[in-house]
Write a structure and sequence with these properties.
816 residues; alpha+beta; 60s Ribosomal Protein L30, Chain: A; 33-stranded mixed β-sheet; 5-stranded mixed β-sheet; 40 strands; 18% helix; elongated
């Protein structure tokens, strides 16, 4: 018995020694065996293993250790496709007895991997990965079917209890060089730690901490996953700092045609904290905090560039709930700030738009019975301009200081806005010699027009009228009020005319609202007041039903003291006459109801005089040709030299007709010459420097003439030598409240350093003299209106004139 025990002990000892020896052989030979077979395999793929590489397996501890791994291509041995400083993996084989694959240690350091995704099949570390989509599909479907069978078979419950346990995994100093879409992307992992990994058919859980660089942009990811068969939850935190967009451009624009390339610049930063809960019927995505910043962002396509900064886009307590066969539910708050937005062509000389700040504060998103609604407390746009060419001296086409849109609600059903308020609006419309608006981009003249495809008419079954429309819901639009918060300025300059036309408007009041396409019979009110070119003024009010099926508009108001000489630019070529002096008043009262026009317009022409077109000289024969037309106009004037017209408006908007009636009958004033002469001389003695009484036409015509106000050569402002004239003139206008005068400024060649007697024909010289005359008129009228309170409507301005005769003096003339 003892001999058998000894024999068994020897056998066990021998077997143990054999196992130990075998394990030692495996341990010692593992570097050589692994190199032999690995080299043979690599040669088949035109790859080579570096001599310094060591691969050793320790069977005593079930440990695999790899040092200085390096695989290079036979064609290019200078650049490794895979390199690894160290890899250490240790398994606990005894845990297999408890149906657990326990990895007690798993650490990788210094990994470099070259990935090429540009070809049809991906190449990872020099190995071509076959793309067997059909087999992959089958391999995916088969386990699913097998899993269903295993769940039904109680005998396979033990197989389903296998699990993988990994207490700690680390990957450090890893670099992935990825070639994709003909670009190179670099992904560096400074540290990747995965802890407490437990994976089975019923439960999966892990904790992940990643510290990495994406194209040198820092990335920090923290993830905690706890997935069970009943409740699955993943929570994560992501921080990404200044990720450059230019290297990622091939990925972001992969689906854009090459004929229309899109280039992008700038960087983005991201900071978010979110969680996902999954169950059989419900998916709940909750974003606790989210912040996105974009710095120096630029996107260019077809020579047009959009540039902006986002500081920032934020989301708070934002949730998305997906329930089977139900509409998604979205709730949360958000805000958005956009700074330094620019849209331009070329290198930036042609600005399309420039906006300093766009703020969207207090955005609230809610869901009620599948209706997703976004409420915006304030949308503010500050310091904006549009259409400016920075290579010329013209101002932008439009600009404003602040646009405030308040209490906005938008949903799938409609858009609702409480108030819109605009501050600091300025519009400058400049027409060049070709009547193009300056500041707007122009297309090259030799660029052929783009041919639009002709739509083919397809015969389709006719639908019953109203049947389709009844199913289609109307998108609702509502605006309570739109207004200007301060005075808006509008300037119009037409440089295609000679002399060019200029007019400015100041809109002191503008209000409009309310508007609601749900209420087609609701009346929308408009109010517009302001002035133009200092003395002209207007006040208009209107009522409209913009959403009514039948047209309805009602307009009433007035324009006062519109200077007529400024309009000569547009009527001179058509009539061969110019408006030398006068003012226009217009009163409107018009209603359009279902295409029916009813109302009247009242025109009042004050001190209007016509002259021959392009006649800048005084006393010329050419100016005498206008006398017959002036006489015809004089037949319409009343005793004060004014013309009053009533124009009824009636008919249909399709064929309107206008009637003219109510011309003021002429009043002829007769008095004896002696009585009139005595009266006039007595009356005007205190104003001897301003007026004189003269007899003409054989003493049968008595005329009161106003003396001229002479100016020193080149002087455009009032001087002390003119003070006596100004004092008596203001006293006369104060005493004679019915007196109305036309002021004409006459310049001489000496005002532009040319001798008297020189015929002025050059357009630039005429413009220069006209500007000097205009400044004199403005100085005189401003002085009388502001200093002495003379009504501006009593001082009418005529077109500037030139006197080239010898002995002529720069002056202002006065006619009643």
């Amino acid at each position: 018995m003892s001999s058998s025990i000894k024999t068994l002990a020897k056998a066990i000892k021998f077997f143990s020694l054999f196992i130990i020896a075998l394990l030692l052989i495996i341990w010692l030979s593992s570097p050589f065996v692994s190199r032999h077979y690995l080299t043979k395999y690599l040669n088949e793929h035109q790859l080579t293993l570096a001599d310094k590489t060591t691969i050793r397996y320790n069977p005593f501890w079930s440990n695999l250790n790899i040092r200085e791994l390096e695989i290079v291509s036979v064609e290019n041995s200078d650049k490794p496709l895979i390199s690894l400083k160290s890899l250490n993996v240790t398994l606990s084989l005894f845990k297999l007895l408890t149906d657990t694959l326990f990895v007690s240690e798993f650490a990788i350091d210094g990994l470099y991997l070259d990935v090429n995704l540009n070809g049809e099949a991906p190449i990872i570390g020099g190995f071509v990965i076959a793309n067997n989509s059909n087999e992959t599909k089958k391999s995916v479907e088969t386990p699913a079917a097998q899993t269903a069978d295993l769940a039904k078979d109680s005998n396979n419950e033990v197989a389903n209890n296998y699990q993988v346990s990994l207490p700690y995994f680390s990957l450090s100093n890893a670099t992935f060089n990825v070639g994709i879409e003909q670009s190179q992307q670099e992904f560096i992992i400074n540290s990747l730690v995965i802890k407490n990994v437990l994976a089975s058919t019923k439960t999966q859980q892990a904790e992940v901490v990643l510290n990495a660089l994406i194209n040198k942009a820092p990335l920090l990811l923290k993830l905690n996953a706890d997935l069970t068969s009943e409740q699955r939850k993943i929570s994560s935190e992501i921080t990404l700092s200044e990720l450059a967009l230019a290297p990622l451009q091939p990925l972001l624009t992969a689906n854009i045609p090459e004929q229309e390339p899109l280039t992008m610049q700038g960087s983005i930063s991201l900071n978010s904290k979110q969680s996902i809960s999954l169950s059989t019927a419900v998916t709940d995505i909750n974003v606790e905090t989210f912040e996105l910043k974009a710095t120096d962002f630029k996107a260019t396509k077809k020579n047009k560039t959009l540039a902006l900064n986002i500081f920032p886009l934020t989301l708070e307590n934002f949730s998305l709930v997906l329930v089977n066969e139900q509409a998604p539910k979205i709730n949360g708050t958000a805000s958005l700030n956009i700074n330094d937005l620019k849209a331009y062509e070329g290198e930036g000389a042609q600005l399309l738009a420039k906006i300093s700040t766009i703020k969207l504060d207090d955005i609230t998103v809610t869901t009620t019975e599948s209706l997703i609604t976004a409420s915006i407390k304030n949308l503010i746009i500050e310091q904006s301009l549009f259409a400016e060419n920075t290579t010329d001296n013209f101002p932008p086409l439009a600009q404003f200081k602040n646009l405030s849109i308040n209490d906005v609600t938008v949903s799938q059903q409609g858009l609702f806005i409480d108030t819109i308020n605009l501050l600091g609006l300025t519009i400058d419309t400049n027409l060049d010699k070709e009547k193009n608006i300056t500041g707007l981009p122009t297309s090259p003249k030799d660029q052929p027009p783009v041919a639009e495809p002709i739509a083919k008419t397809i015969n389709s079954p006719k639908t019953i009228e109203g049947e389709a429309g009844s199913e289609e819901k109307l998108f609702l639009l509502s605006l309570n009020s739109f207004s200007f918060g301060d005075t808006a300025g509008i300037t119009f300059i037409d440089r295609s005319t000679s002399p060019y036309y200029k007019r400015s408007f100041n809109i002191t009041t503008f209000n409009a609202g309310s508007f609601d396409n749900q209420k087609p019979q609701q009346e929308s009110n408009f109010t517009l007041t302001g002035n133009s070119d200092k003395y002209a003024n207007f006040n208009l009010s209107a009522v409209a039903k913009p959403f009514s099926k039948k047209d309805y508009y009602k307009l009433n108001g007035f324009f006062k003291e519109v200077s007529l000489p400024s309009l000569s630019t547009y009527i001179a070529q058509a009539l061969n006459y110019e408006l030398k002096s006068g003012q226009l008043d217009v009163d409107l009262d018009v209603t359009i109801d279902d295409k029916k026009i009813a109302g009247k317009t009242k025109l009042f022409l004050r001190g209007v005089e016509l002259g021959a077109a392009n006649d800048h000289e005084t006393g010329t024969v050419k100016s005498q040709t206008s006398v017959p037309f002036n006489i015809a106009l004089g037949m319409l004037k009343d005793g004060d030299g004014n013309v009053e017209l009533d124009i009824p408006l009636k008919g249909s908007t399709d064929d309107p007709s206008f009637g003219m009636s109510g011309f003021i009958n002429l009043l002829v004033k007769k008095a004896t010459m002696s009585a009139a002469k005595e009266y006039l001389i007595t009356t005007f003695v205190p104003y001897a420097n301003v007026v004189n009484v003269a007899m003409s036409a054989g003493d049968y015509l008595l005329k009161v003439r106003f003396n001229d106000l002479n100016f020193p050569i080149k002087e455009t402002q009032l001087t002390a030598q003119q003070s006596q004239f100004l004092t008596q003139f203001s006293a006369l206008m104060t005493d004679k409240l019915d007196t109305q005068l036309t002021l004409c400024a006459i310049a001489t060649p000496e005002d532009i350093d040319k001798p008297l007697g020189t015929k002025i024909t050059d357009i630039d010289d005429i413009k220069q003299l006209a500007e000097i005359s205009g400044q004199r008129l403005e100085a005189f009228k401003d002085y009388m209106v502001k200093e002495h309170g003379i009504a501006s409507s009593r001082l009418l301005l005529c077109s500037p004139k030139i006197d080239s005769t010898k002995g002529a003096k720069p002056r202002i003339t006065f006619t009643d």
